[in-house]
Design a protein that fits this description.
The complex is a heterodimer. Chain A is mainly α. Chain A is 65% helix and 0% strand. In chain A, helix 7 packs antiparallel against helix 8. The C terminus of chain A is likely disordered. In chain B, 21% of the residues lie in helices and 18% in strands. In chain B, the strands form 5 sheets. Chain B has a 3-stranded mixed sheet. A two-stranded antiparallel ribbon of chain B has the order 1-2. By secondary structure, chain B is α+β, with helices and mostly antiparallel strands. Chain B has 2 domains: 30 residues, no CATH class; 199 residues, 2-Layer Sandwich (Alpha-Beta Plaits), CATH 3.30.70. Classes of the chains: A mainly alpha, B alpha+beta. The interface between A and B is large, with 42 and 53 residues.
Chain lengths: 207, 242
């Protein structure tokens, strides 16, 4: 009898901490499930995918792997000069961060910034923007436009112009100048229109 | 063939002999650099180099410096003093003692083949790409500044302050060393470095390994001076007129 009692008390002694542990776990799990586990709402990207399926895949993949993809891409770029748009930080920023938000530049210090919303939520430090720009910026056109300016002031340009004017009609001259000198900036269109204006005014004065 | 196409063909064939597909007139080379496909890694078959004719730089290189500042966004550090300011490219005035002749030349990273900055870097951040461009991998630079001390051209500088609004193609940040990277972002896209575009009459950019490139041809014919050639660093930047 005594032996049975002692076994029973031993069982009780062992099971009490187990029960405490179990109840603690269940309370924790219950409270966790009661937590809002949804990530915070993010700013909408400027470009949208063609279908919801592709978008969902992109979101699921990037939510989990963006840091690895960016890390891999950064080394590919720095060491091997691979500058494709896929996983390029600039491409991410250009699509996910607006140029202006409430009339101001949206910086990563603002919690509404696409990256900062989640990084703030999970308290993960965001290092990229110590060096990289955190909002879309139009590429500089100045150096290229300088070169265009230099070119238009150069002797070679005047030689070509006089050659063209001596040999072909004005319309073709305008076209060929515009087609041979191609730069992919907005300013070029100004230069082109300047050219055509000049050409047309010249044509007018000739007549 | 349309009238315009036939005109263009005649026009271009009239200029034949000036080599390169992108010549538009004798002596004017808009793009000698061929763009590699963006997804293709750089190769060591290419070695980028630059030739600067200081006699043709009428402003001593001011236009180049301005173009560099605009391309890479340096030069307006608010809190740094003169000694701390970023210097990707500097105008150096030299006087010959004997004759008193003075000259002014732009000096930047010379993109050495055996770069001392790469030798001394403890983390491997100071690196030479396969195509000969020397640059700092700022992701792993710890800002120790050994490379600044090792560089015989004083080409490197250290960022002393927090920066915002960097250029998208040129990340720069406090605590890292930086220098001329021959505009890697532009070169990878098949463009010339910004300084070369700013002074096309005095500067030439191209592949030193390709004997048919314009820069190799003129270097073969006339040679080009290295600054501190005695160090035998085989620099990628060569000068005329010093």
């Amino acid at each position: 009898m005594l032996r049975i009692q002692s076994t029973f008390t031993r069982f009780l002694k062992q099971s009490v901490p187990l029960a405490v542990l179990l109840s603690f776990l269940s309370v924790t799990l219950l409270s966790l499930s009661a937590c809002d586990s949804e990530p915070p709402a993010l700013m909408k990207a400027s470009k949208q995918f063609d279908s919801d399926e592709i978008r969902d895949k992109h979101v699921a993949h990037m939510r989990k792997n963006h840091m690895d993809e960016l890390m891999h891409k950064r080394d590919e770029t720095v060491y091997n000069g691979i500058r494709t748009q896929k996983y390029s930080l600039n491409a991410c920023i250009n699509c996910h961060v607006p140029e202006q938000h409430n009339g101001e530049v949206l910086r990563h210090t603002n919690p509404e910034h696409f990256c900062s919303t989640c990084h703030g939520y999970v308290a993960a430090k965001l290092d990229c923007f110590e060096c990289h720009v955190d909002h879309p910026v139009k590429q500089p056109t100045t150096s290229i436009s300088n070169s265009i300016q230099n070119y238009h002031n150069s002797k070679a340009h005047t030689e070509i112009k006089s050659y063209i004017q001596a040999n072909v009609s004005d319309e073709i001259a305008t076209l060929s100048l515009a087609k041979n000198v191609t730069f992919d900036t907005n300013e070029v269109s100004d230069v082109k229109t300047d050219q055509s204006n000049k050409a047309s005014s010249k044509k007018g004065s000739d007549q | 063939m349309s009238k315009i196409d036939s005109y263009r063909r005649n026009f271009l064939s009239g200029l034949a002999g000036t080599a390169a597909a992108v010549t538009i007139a004798p002596g004017v080379f808009l793009r000698e650099v061929q763009a590699k496909p963006a997804d293709e890694p750089i190769s060591d078959k290419v070695r980028w180099g630059m030739l600067i004719d200081i006699n043709k730089l009428s402003d001593g290189g001011d236009a180049c410096i301005e173009a560099c500042k605009k391309e890479h966004g340096w030069g307006d550090e608010k809190h740094s003093n003169d000694q701390q300011d970023a210097q990707w490219i500097r105008k150096v005035k030299v006087t010959e003692k004997m004759t008193g002749k003075t000259m002014s030349l732009p000096v930047m990273c010379q993109h050495c083949e055996t770069a001392p900055c790469v030798d001394v870097c403890p983390t491997g951040a100071s690196m030479k790409r396969a195509d000969g461009i020397v640059q700092v991998n700022k992701h792993i630079c710890i800002g120790c500044r050994y490379c600044m001390m090792a560089c015989p051209y004083k080409a490197r500088s250290f960022v002393h302050e927090t920066l915002v609004d960097q250029r998208p193609g040129t990340p720069r940040g406090k605590g890292t060393v930086e220098s001329c990277n021959m505009c890697v972002n532009r070169v990878d896209a098949g463009k010339n470095p910004a300084c070369v575009d700013a002074a096309p009459e005095a500067m030439l950019f191209g592949d030193l390994n390709d004997e048919n490139s314009q820069i190799s041809k003129v270097l073969k014919q006339y040679g080009g001076t290295q600054i501190r050639a005695d160090l035998e660093l085989n620099t990628g930047v060569r000068y005329w007129g010093i």
